[in-house]
Amino acid sequence: MKYKQLGQTGLYVSELTLGTMTFDTEGGSYAGLIGATGQDLATRMVDLSIEAGINIFDTANVYSSGVSEEMLGKALGARRQDVLIATKVYNTMTTGPNDLGTSRLAIMREVEASLKRLGTDYIDLYQVHNFDITTPLEETLRALDDLVRQGKVRYIGLSNFAGWQIAKADGMARLLGTERFCSAQSYYSLVGRELEREILPAAMDLGLGTFIWSPLASGFLSGKYTRDSEASGRRANFDYPPIDKDQGFDIVDVLTDIAETKAASVAQIALAWLLHKPGVTSVIVGARKEAQLVDNLGAANIALSEEEMARLDTVSALKPEYPGYLPTWRRGDTLFGMLDD
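Above: the chain sequence. Below: its structure as tokens.
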């Protein structure tokens, strides 16, 4: 397992993160959509992850209505001091007028609830789960800054922000002198490369680390889905995130070919592609079966050649969008030479 510096902090995180959205009981809120592990399997997955070198675990207050945080806390037990916990705030399990979002009231209430469920007195990385269009950024940033000063939170991150929102948040924090976001958690996969347009460039320019969620596009890149057989699985009940399946099947064909030459799984190659991409700090892997997790962990040992990366980059390429298809002129180029004449 490799470890990478998280943004401009002094914190190092494993290149794979264990995601715990599947940590739930059989009757939990997510069980009918993506499957549930139960406590025994959740603990086993934490054990396997730590043995493989993973040092960070990702959850959220809303995952399974808080059950995910509770199960993660129990699974870690006395090992909590040896690992990093990342959780999130924004969504809520209730419907009151002040429950949703990242107001000072909501943040202060939710952090206490998360700390209690996790069985800890601090959170290593507290992430804003979405951009709150109703709360001023100043209020959110000052509340998060207070949590860092109180020692309840070590670092703050953001998730699912657009590129301009990342830039605005960073600029506002610099202006106010508050704690800056050190990481961005976003969706990225071979069938979902949209973050390359604005989000990833913004994060890299401003020095934010990145955590990648749904790297297998909810199982589409697991190897189960082909043109001839769209296997039943998570996407049968929860077809998200949206993808272009025609291009997706072309990508799976290339993944399958590369996987066969390396005696690896399709999923391992898809994950390894992300691990080789510039700007990616850690890829979040999650599973509802032990075998799935073991397979995913093996991606850390896959090396892809420049030719293999190029094949995958080409088959998964985004269609150019404005202003991306405009030429980039530099002084000394033909256009400027003509103007000088």
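Strands lie at 3-5, 12-14, 16-19, 56-58, 84-89, 123-128, 153-159, 183-187, 209-213, 282-285.
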